[in-house]
Amino acid sequence: MRAGDDLPALITAAALELRDGDVLVIAQKVVSKAEGRVRALADVVPGPKAVALAGDFDKDPRLVQLVLDESAAVVRVGHGVLICETRHGFVCANAGVDLSNSGDEGVAVLLPLDPDASARRIRAALSAKAELTPDSGVNSDLVRVGVVISDSFGRPWRLGVTDVAIGAAGIEVLEDWRGRRDVHGRELRATEIAIADQLAAAADLVRAKDSGEPVVLVRGAERFVTSEDGPGAAALRRPRDLDLFR
Amino acid sequence: MRAGDDLPALITAAALELRDGDVLVIAQKVVSKAEGRVRALADVVPGPKAVALAGDFDKDPRLVQLVLDESAAVVRVGHGVLICETRHGFVCANAGVDLSNSGDEGVAVLLPLDPDASARRIRAALSAKAELTPDSGVNSDLVRVGVVISDSFGRPWRLGVTDVAIGAAGIEVLEDWRGRRDVHGRELRATEIAIADQLAAAADLVRAKDSGEPVVLVRGAERFVTSEDGPGAAALRRPRDLDLFR
Fold it and tell me: Is CB count within 10 Å lower at the N or C end of chain B?
C-alpha cells in the first residue's frame, strides 16, 4: 500500500462480493498508507521536549517528536510508552504512531487525519462498486455496507491489546439501551454498548499480525448497519468531563 | 437460573452439539446465579462508609455495602459509579455487583468467587458430555472446547461497554507476539493480544441484552483452544506495578 493507492478498488479486486448488511473492518495502517500519512524519521528534527522524553525512554527522539506532533495532550508517561490524547480525541499509546508494518525501515505510520471521513469515503466507493457488480444478486438500491477502521489499543488494568474502532461509517457505533429493560423487566445497567469496538475486536480474531491481511469481512451483523453514515467513531470518545481517568 | 442449577447440562440440553475447537462464551450472570452468588438487599446492613457514599450518589446504601464487600480497593468515585478493584483483581464499575437481569426485584448478582475455576468446571463438564454424544461425529479424544465467562465492562476514555473475559479455561487468553515480526520482518509493536476479551466482544454482537440468551457458541476460533485449562482470565489482569492508572 502506497500513498494514492485506491483502497476500495483493491478491496473489490480481492474478490469480495459485497452483500447488503456486510461490514468491512479495515486496519488503520493501510488506510493511513493510502492517504500518505507516513513520515520518514530522517525528515524529523526533534525539539528539546522530545529529546528529553526520548532519553528517559531509550527511544528515537525523532519518533517521540512525531508522537508529540500528533498529540493534543500527554495523559501519562511510563513503562516505555507515552499515553497520549490524539488530536482527534482518542487516548492511546504513542498517539497511534507506529514503526511496525510500515513497509519501510525508518518510516512511521500516523493515524489518518480524520478516520471517520476516511471511513465515509471508503464506504461511498465500496457502495458504488457494489452497485456495479452484475452478479451480486441483490437489488443495488439495497446494498448498504458498514465500514470500520480499526487499530490495536492497550487498556488500563488489563494486559494485551484489543482492536477498537477509530473510524466508522454506516455503523450503529453505540447501541443505546438507556431506559430499556432486561428480560425480567428491570432497567438495564449496561446502557450503551460499543458495537463498533466489538466489531473491530471480532474481526481481529480471524487474522494474524504477520499475515498482511488488512481487511476482514464481517457477515451477519446487518442489524448494526445503517443507511446513513452516522456519527462515526467520534461518538465513542468519552468527553473529558465524563472521564475519571484524565 | 437458580443456585444449584446444572449449567453445563442446560447448555447441552439447548441442542448444542459441541465440536472440537468450539468456544462457549457464557454470560457471568448465569454462572453467578447457578453458583448462588446472589444477595437480597433486604439481608444487607450497610455500614457508615456505604451510607456516606450512597448519599453522594443517590444509591441504595445496601447495594453500596455489597460493592464495598466485593472490593479490594476503590480506584475512583464519580459519575454515579464506584470504579473498584475486585477481590480477584479486576477493575470495573461497582465491583461487578448488579441488580439487572437478576430475575428478582431487590436481589443483586455478584461476580463468581473464582471465575477461572468456574470456567474450568464448566469446561470439564461440557467435555465429558461431548464425549457421550453418540452422533457428534468426532473422536471423543479430540473434543477440546474452550470456555469464556464474560461480563460487560466500561472503559476509561471511550464510551460504551464491551464484553471482556473474567474467566476462561482451555483458551489462549493472551496471544504472545513478543519478538515476532511483521510481514515486512520488522518487530511488532502489538506484543500481546487479548484473545479472550476479543472472543467475549465477538460473542456479545450476536445477542441482545434483553434476549435472555446467556451462552454463545463461537465456531472457527479453534486456533485459540488449548488442550490444557491454562492460566485463565487471571492472566489478563495487569499487575499494579505495570499499571499507569491505579
Answer: C
